[in-house]
Design a protein that fits this description.
By secondary structure, this protein is mainly alpha-helical. The protein has helices at residues 3-26, 30-52, 78-108, 114-120; strands at 57-58, 74-75. A two-stranded parallel sheet has the order 1-2.
Length: 123
């Protein structure tokens, strides 16, 4: 992949992380904060995928060679792929847990606005 394309992709990935982070800081609605956190984690995962992608390496599972023969060359490291899959699963679990917390708050409060929830829970 040419260097210019990699730099453009890195800029988009960085913008995704930045927009997610700003959404967490700026948005007042809990549901929007959860979505912003998901956008930010998607950007981080995309950055890891971009860093791990290299041309000229073979994936350990897929190849075009006949059965029994192995392609000659360098193999891609499967550890980053496993780490990313784990990060996706953990991110999904955290998001589900936060949505359950937001549902419990919505039962007790008629709104998901953080300022209104804080006002209702002040002593």
């Amino acid at each position: 992949m040419p260097v210019l394309e990699v730099r453009i992709l890195e800029a988009f990935v960085f913008a995704t992380v930045l927009f997610g982070f700003l959404g967490i800081l700026v948005k007042k609605n809990l549901l929007m904060k959860i979505i912003a956190m998901d956008v930010m984690s998607t950007g981080v995962i995309a950055y890891y995928v971009l860093v791990a992608a290299r041309q000229g390496v073979f994936t350990p599972i897929l190849s075009d060679t006949p059965k029994g023969e192995y392609p000659k060359g360098e193999y891609a490291d499967p550890v980053p792929q496993a780490v990313i899959l784990t990060a996706i699963v953990i991110g999904f679990s955290i998001q589900a847990l936060m949505l359950v917390g937001a549902m419990k708050l919505a039962r007790e409060n008629p709104t998901l606005e953080t300022s209104e929830i804080e006002k209702g829970n002040m002593p």
